[in-house]
Amino acid sequence: MTAFPATTDLCDAHEPLFDSGELRVLGPGLLAFGARPRFCGTARTIKLFEDNTLLAQAVKEPGGGQVLVVDAGGSTRCAVLGGNLARAAADNGWAGVIVYGAVRDVDEIDGCAVGVRALAVTPRRSIKRGEGQRDLVVHVFGQLVRPGDWVYADRDGVIVCSRQLHG
């Protein structure tokens, strides 16, 4: 995993990028899971609603250290990521998964070498209709995330920038 300064230090060092909208902070209150509390990488995006078919496909593909950002519509009625998909993400080299929605199997997720942020936890699984979209601009936690944006996550929060901020 790529080493990077704390999100607080990145925000301080690049404060002018807030005014231009290049640097954005995802809304507070994200729950943190996974054995990787700090992660960063370029964003890949998915938009879905209570159907994790595309998410399941994505985490089974090579992640190359990227961060999967999932706009699940903020739904907390069912989980779109659980232990099996988190394990697949870790095994396939994803740095992290950010879910604007719910996850489940958090004890299993915590055992996986991937970082996960989510809005909520629920035990109910998602449906599978094969619906959703990939690699488009998504709106999550109050901010737009574009494919290729840089995502940085640590215990202080998650920031997104149109350019790489470290090394």
C-alpha geometry: globular
* Alpha carbon gyration radius: 14 Å
Spatial separation of the terminal alpha carbons: 13 Å
Look at the structure and give the mean pLDDT: 97
Number of helices: 5
CATH level 1 class label: Alpha Beta
Q: What kind of sheet is the major sheet?
A: 10 strands, mixed
**CATH topology descriptor:** Glucose Oxidase, domain 1
The structural class is: alpha/beta
Instruction: Please tally the β strands and state the result.
Output: 12
Number of domains: 1
Percent range of helical residues: 10-25%
Q: Would you identify the CATH architecture?
A: 3-Layer(bba) Sandwich
CATH superfamily: Ribonuclease E inhibitor RraA/RraA-like
Estimate the strand proportion.
25-35%
Order of helices and strands: HHEEEHEEHEHEEEEEE
Q: Flag low-confidence runs.
A: none
